[in-house]
Structure formats: C-alpha cells, structure tokens
Amino acid sequence: MEQQYEGYKDLANSLKSASALLNLERKSQLHQDIITICNHLVNPSFRIAVFGPFNHGKSTLLNAMLGNRTLPIDLIPTTGAAITVKYGSDLQTRIMLVDGTEIYGSGTEVLQEFAILDGNRQMRKDVVSVEIFCPHPFLETGVEFLDLPGTNDREEQDNLVREQLLSADLVIQLLDARKLMTLGERENLRDWLLDRGIKTVIFVANFINLLEPDEQKQVQNRLVFVAESFRAELPPGFSNLYRVDALPALRARLKGDVAAANSSGLVAFETALQNIAGILQPNRGSVRLPRVQAIASQIQLSLKAKIDHIAIEIKSFDDKQNTKIEIKQKAANLIYKGFAISVGELRDWLALPNLLTKYQAEAAVALAENNFKSWQTNTLKKDLIQLQLAAGKWLDQAYEFFHEERPQDLLIPFPSEPQVILPSKSSNTDDLSEPGSIAVGGGIGWLLGGPVGAAVVGSISYLLNKNIQKQDEQLAKESYHQEVAKLCITAIENYLSCFSVQGLSILTEYEHKAEKIICFELSQEPLEITNKRETLQQFQNSFNQLLQELEKVKILSNHQLYKEIPKSTNINRKYSPQPERVKTFLQKDPDIKQQHENSAKNTGTRVEFVSPPPPKASPSPRPEELEAKFRDWELNEEIARMKAEMRSPKGCRQTSPGSQTGKQQNTTQSNKTSNQAQIDKITHAYNILGLQANASQAEVKQAYRTLVKKWHPDLFVNQPQLLKQAQEKMHLVNEAYTILNEK
After folding, report:
1. DSSP states of 307-347
2. pTM of structure
3. Which of 13, 406, 488, 703 is most buried, most CB within 10 Å of its CB?
4. Residue 378 and residue 315 in contact, taking contact as beta carbons nearer than 8 Å
C-alpha cells in the first residue's frame, strides 16, 4: 500500500508540474481541480461527502449519524465552509485562516463565528479550512465526513462544492422527496459528478415522512427510476438508494430511542454505508483514479495544443531554412562541378604533352620565321584567355549567389620569348638536297635568309613529323638547316615546358582560393527559434512524464510519447562542396546528371559519376552549356526548378501500389467500416437533441436542458401514458447526451 501511494505521489507531482508549465490562472476551474485531486490522491483517509441543495438536511443527517449536534443546523442556509469531520479522542474544532493562523476550540461553538453564513448569506473570505475532531467509532476506522455548503444558493458556494467533490471517495446526494430531482439537481449530477469521473454515489431521500401515504408510494416509484437511471459504481449487492428521515433520526439518536432510529431509516443506511466504506477503503485508488483520468485528459489536451502550436511554428521556420539551404547546396554543387570541369580542361591544356602536340610545330615555325610574338598573341594567348575566362566565370557566379570572398582574376603569364643561337655554317650550307628541304613551302626566311632559311622552316615540320634517327641513319652528319630546325624545336619545347609548370602551379593555387568562394555559411538560428525549441522540449517532457505516470497506475491513454527533439546543427558552419558530395548529389538528381551527360556528349567533356558504367574519356572542350545555366540567376532553369520545389508542398509524389503509402491507404479503407458505425451513432445523437452535426459543447448542454425541462417525468405524474413516453424520451436524451460528451 505504501508503494502504491508513493506512485500516486509521483503522479500528483507530475500533474502539478504540468499545471505550472501551462501557467493556468489560479482561479481557473482546471487549476483548482488539479490542486484538489493532487491533495486527495495522497490522503490516506476515506472521505465521505454529503452533497445537495441548501436546506435539504445535510448537516442534520450528519449529526444524526454522529449522535449529537456537532454541525450547525438552521432553517436557512448556514454551512458557510467545507467542514471536515475526523476522528479525535475529544470533540474539538480547528480553524485555518488565510494568513496561517490556527484557531482551536473545545467543542464546536467556534463554528458559529467561522463556519456559517453571515447576515448577507456570504462565506467568510479569510477561512481556508474547518476541521472537527469527533470520538466516533466509524471515524476511527480512517473514515472522515465532509459537510458541504448547500448548492443552488450562491455561485461562490457552488464553486466551493464543485471543487470539494473531487476530494470525496463516496458521495451522499441528499434529495428532497417533496420536489424530487429538480433540473438543478440533475444538471449537477451530470456536470459535477458523472462528467468528472465521480460515480460512487448514494442517493438518500429526506422528508418522505412529511408526505401523505399515497404520495409516499408515488415518490418511492420515482426514486427507483432515479436510482436505476444512474449507474453507480458501488460494490455488488448494495443499493444506491436509501430513505432517511433526517430530523426524526437525529431526535431519536439524541433521546437514545433505537426503535425510532430504525423506523427513520437511519440504522439501515448506516449499516450499508459502513459496509460499502469497508469494501472500498482498502482500494481507494480504483475510486480516485477515474477522476484523475478526467483531469489528466484535459491537461494532456492543453499540453498537446501548446506543443502542436509551437511545433508548427518551428517546422515552418525549419522548412524555409532547409529549402534555402537545399537550393544553395544544389547551386554550390553545380557551380563546383562546372568549375571543376573548366579547371580540368585548363589543366589538360596546360599539360606539356598536350601543349607540345598542339603548338610546338607552329610555334617553332613562327620562331623560325621571326613571327613568334604575333603567334603568341593571336594563338596561344587567345586560347589561354578563353580557358581562363571559362573557369573564372564560375567563381563570379558563386560570388553573385553566395557573396562570400570576392574572386580574383586567373592570370597565367607567358615566359620570355625564346632565343636561338645559330651554329657556325659549314662549307656545304647551300646544299638543299637533304631530306626535309623538299618540304619547304616558302616563307620570309630567318636570320639565315634566302633558301637556307626556308629550308630550316621546312625541316622543322619534317623533324617533328618524322623520326629522323630511323629515317636518316645513313647520313653521317646533319645538314645545317636541320641543325637549326632542331634548335628552334628545342627552344619552343623549353618555352612550353616553363609555361606549363608555371601555369599548373598558378592554377593549383587558384583552385585553393576557389574553396573560399564556392561556399556559404549556414546562418545561426535566431534566438527566438532556439527559445521555442527549448519551450517545446519542456512541454513534451512534461507530457511524456505525465503519460508515463498514468501508465504506472494503469490509466490507459490514446496518446503516444513524443520523441526527443533533435538539436539544430546549422550553427556556425560552412558548406563547401567536395568531389564526393558533388558526385553523390549528381547521382541522386537524375535531371542534373542528364544535363551534364548531354553537355558531355555535345562538347566532348568527360563527366564522371559514381554509378557504373563510367563514360569513356574523350577530348575536353569548354562546357558552354553549363556556363550558360548561370549567366542570369533569376532566369536560370536550374534555380527556377529549385525555387519551384521550395514552393510546392512535400509528400505529393505518387507511390506504387506496393509502397508503404499504398498499404496505409488499404488500412484506412478497412477502417472506414468500423468508423462509419461510430459516425452514425454520433449523428443520431445530434438528431435526438435537435442539433446540427458538430454543434458546440455549449449548444449540446443547452439543448439537453431544454429537453429536460420539456420531458421531465415529474411533469407527467398524474398522466400515466405521457409519463411512460416522457421516461422513454428522457432515456434517449440521456443516452444521446452521454455519447456526445464522450466523443
């Protein structure tokens, strides 16, 4: 039992923590209910409350059971506080005031000052609690009585009674047989008891002795109807309806008249009450937890509303941020890919074997013709500038998009113009019969001038396109113009080698600088959003804690635990595309991959992807199609597609019949049949109350009250036929009201 109450203590703490987190108003009904039920959860005593409208004889009944005039009695509403009667060896009273003052008094005379209504029928504002200690055997078993102010008198008293009812393990609802089950009593039965999980209720009819014998029989029949319509959760074999003539019972007890006490119904009621309490008392949790469930459900709904609201705000922010980041990532990867292709083309172009293959012959000829500077400007420099601009454009576009570090121009200088020192001429320099001389097509000559200079130019082409060591081994020595041609070829080779080494070095440094340009910083999350994440986590933790505590005491819930919120990782970090990222990105995006493949086909550019088989290597001209994509960002096809993705709702892709979504759709379809029955039931309930579907709770209650006033069985007591119809009608109305309250 101790372990069980320790669990109730944890549950109470969880309820209080949730209430504090929700920042409920102290005077709100939910806040008051939480405080009351939490205090009651850990109360070891079994509390019995006497409840009913004013002047129904509640205090008189309690005095009769206690055997003396312990509680104040008068013909006007007198009980001005919730009075708790506990066991004590001597009859005494303790009053707790708001300022913390405790007032003790022997007997109960002090109640006249603190526990009754004043001349204006108002309760005292400074009284927190009123307790009476009484030497009664029933109280000694751990039972305590709660005498509540009368209802239907003042709103302040009604609020106090409604609050205190949650702290009662057993409720005695006192009825006046002369005006049995008024509309107010029936409304209180619903709103204050049933709807709040309080179902351990016993009805006690007072004042039957004041009725004529024939009236008593009619009232008894109506009492049976009231008792049967209320499904009290009492131990098996016990009735929830008793008759006690309170004032005659009190008089009999004060006189010690046992026979009169028996005839008043007091003894039979006391016996049943003690037996019921004896059965329920050891398992008080089964009585109290349904009330906790009703309150916890309200708290969970309030927490969930807060959680959903904050989660929507955070998700909206995250979606926008993720969309921006995704667009930037795609743009960065595309730019990096284009830049890598352009730089790769320039690197291939700068490779010495490629330079020699493409330019050595014409450069040597230009050198031999004394036209090298013009050739360098019109041919070599022109090709270099085109390749430099192709690579530089990607960095310019990266700066336009990301506004990181401003790019510098890629400048690869040319080495000094090559110089050739002519060898001394031999005696047979005019001999033009050697191989190569026949290839001369003319020319302006060189320093040698004349036909010898033309022969040198011709020999350059011959030497670069023939293998002189194999073709002319028969020659003992080379001719003069071939010797000069070889000097020109060597000079150009040295020139291009120097140009290649220097260019590749500058290009490597340029690539490193590009890493600071083709990147973007993941902006730090605003403090407002960070605070919202922390608040959301607090609400979810409170919700989860409450749900777990409810499960410990076997209170089931339709809710699920919230998962821990992942912390934001986009703080003080930069995104820089890497080759692996670009490959993966292109592999996952078939549209972009196809565009690059098409570009590769049209330009001969080699494009590599992770997925096999890789395309065959081919010559690498400039990627003009890729460059065109980024000349105008606002009109760029790729960015437009990214922005379209940002605007379009997610989760709209079609799925195959065998997908998980398809399975869920099938499951949903199978659930429609069972759900339809519940929908029809609710619709029928609205029709009984004369309401449109989805009417508000206030409209439901108002319709119920209107129908009760119209069809209350008390209105048709002298009309048997109509009485039966009224009872049937009220049965349907009550059932409909119950359905709509539980939906």
Report:
1. HHHHHHHHHHHHHHHHHHHHHHHHHHHHHHHHHHHHHHHHH
2. 0.58
3. 488
4. no
- Locate 310 and state its tokens: 């904050």
Counting every residue written for the chain, the total comes to 743
| Residue type, position 307, single letter | I
- 219-235: per-residue pLDDT in tens? 888 888 877 877 788 99
> Which residues make beta-bridge pairs with 242?
204
CA dist 251 → 72, 78, 368, 678 (Å): 15, 20, 143, 55
How far apart CA 740 and CA 732 sit, in angstroms, is 12
Burial 552-567 (b: 16+ CB within 10 A, else e): ebebeeebeebeeeee
- What 3 state SS string does 42-76 have? CCCCEEEEEECECCCCHHHHHHHHHCCCCCCCCCC
Task: Give the tokens for residue 277.
Answer: 């309490």
Strand ordering across the sheet containing 143-147: 102-106, 92-97, 127-134, 83-87, 143-147, 46-51, 170-176, 201-206, 241-243
SS3 399: helix
SS (H, E, C) 151-178: ECCCHHHHHHHHHHHCCCCEEEEEEEHH
Report pLDDT digits (tens) over 427-456: 554 444 443 333 333 333 444 444 445 556
Decide: 605 and 620 in contact? Cβ < 8 Å.
Answer: yes
- Tokens 């002047």 appear where? 55
Strand 127-134 to strand 92-97: parallel, antiparallel, or no bridges (unpaired)?
antiparallel
